[in-house]
Fold this sequence. Notes:
With 343 residues, the chain is α/β, with parallel strands linked by helices.
Amino acid sequence: MKNQPRLWVIIPCYNEEEVLPVTAPLFLKELQDMIHEEKISPDSRILFVNDGSGDRTWELITSLSRQDEHYIGIEQSRNRGHQNAVLAGLMEAKDRCDITISIDCDGQDDIRAMGRMVDEYGKGCEIVYGVRSSRETDTWFKRNTAQGFYRFLNAMGAEVIYNHADYRLVSSRVLQHFADFKEVNIFLRGMFPLVGFKSTSVYYERHERMAGKSHYPLKKMLALAFDGITSLSTKPISIICGVGVAVSVIGFIGILWAIALAVTGKTVAGWASIVCIVCFLGGIQLLSLGIIGEYVGKTYLEAKHRPRYIISERTWEQSDPGRPENIRPEEQGDHGSEDSVTR
């Protein structure tokens, strides 16, 4: 009989002192239900990743870890952003479990979908994407900007799953290979499709945030989209080349037209036309330099090879050394990947 997979639920947290007391018991109940149904191992864990919060988030995480052994947590040395927080949790878990599920702390993603994700893993899928079935709870502006966000990413060459954010199941086998992706500029929802392996999607309804306020306003969404495009695709540079060729052709035609007018003596001084042409070309040049500069800047950051995250504290470092999360990867043998590798 196949062993029950050990699951670690990865939950990034940033200033979540209002919502954490509400959602933490819900995560634990779902974990215990899956254990009771024998879908996952009893030594599965809920890993909170504190992303340098300025409130009492870390205190709440440490308190939860003392209340129940299924709660554990790690703290980053400073705020490094949502994507790096998820990555830190995944890399911490990859040698200590069979599967991971990453989900946000706010309770908007349907927690009950985790059971269906584990079922799909049992059928042989190494990656299971949580996909929103609709956006009826969003405002008109939020719904249209979010849908435009995914369409724009795909149009720019960044391969992403439509209406999927960072709610996904990933096997330890995938994470072992994902660890070879060393880039500093990360966009997880576009990187996991690049790893490959058998995948599927689980659809769910998204709810309102249970408490607190969103940490992803439009400004951050646009920045995330731009990071995703420039981290995964060079299509913007190709577009610049295309625009440059088009403008050059138009300019060449304009030169021929100007020469023809000069030869026929029909030239007329046109201040407005000159200003328009200069402004147009100047805008194209500055935009092109800005986009190219973004790529140069990312190359500069990649060349430094700085760490993508630094873990300053773990809740289990002073706890029972026999607990699964406190066992060093080299001491636990192949438990973390044997099941997924041999399937």
